[in-house]
Amino acid sequence: MYTEMFDKTSTQMAQFLNPLLEAQGKMVDHVARITDFQVEAVKTYSELSFGTLRALTEVKDPQSLQAYVTKQTEVAKSLGERVTADVNELIKINRSFAEDLQKMTQQNVSNATEQAKKATKQATASAASAASESTGSAGTGTASGSGSTSTSKKNA
């Protein structure tokens, strides 16, 4: 009896915890992707900044200053393109995460609805069975009671 109750409780706990564990796994994966993205972005932007500073230290005369300024317009254009690409990549990562969570939520709602229908069906069947048993035993008691009453009237 206790084993059956323990197994049923364990099954119910697993049904409750599995979606939470799945969501937690997806969140950890998402944080890892965002972290990798940020580390790579910091590395890229740091290299770009230090490259610009190194180029500035090499300015010695008006011609090298002119070359530096010309190069900076290219660097600014490249930086703008990189920022746009990074923002798009970040949006893609976040959208993917949101879609994964939405799919998981829909699946869990479907599972919960299905389990609720099964539980309702079982409860209805149990209630009907209990009602038929109580009606059957009440009908038996009533029938024997009326039979003894009629016998009492005959004897009187």
Q: What pattern of helices and strands is seen along the backbone?
A: HH
Secondary-structure-based class equals mainly alpha
| N- and C-termini, Cα separation | 53 Å
> Mind summarizing the main beta sheet?
none
CA gyration radius, whole angstroms: 38 Å
Low-confidence stretches: 141-156
Query: What share of the residues lie within helices?
Result: over 70%
| DSSP strand content | under 5%
**Shape by Cα distribution:** rod-shaped
The total count of helices amounts to 2
> What is the count of β-strands?
0
- Mean pLDDT, as a whole number? 84
Secondary structure: elements and pairs:
Layout: H1 2-57, H2 62-155
Helix pairs in contact: 1-2
Give a verbal description of the structure:
- The protein is mainly α and 156 residues long.
- The chain has a domain at 21-105.
- Helix content is 96%, strand content 0%.
- The protein is built from 2 helices and no strands.
- The chain has helices spanning 2-57, 62-155.
- Helix 1 runs antiparallel to helix 2.
- The longest helix has 94 residues, at 62-155.
- It is rod-shaped, with a radius of gyration of 38 Å.
- The chain starts with a helix and ends with a helix.
Keywords:
156 residues, mainly alpha, 96% helix, rod-shaped, disordered C terminus
Describe what is shown at a glance.
Helix content is 96%, strand content 0%.
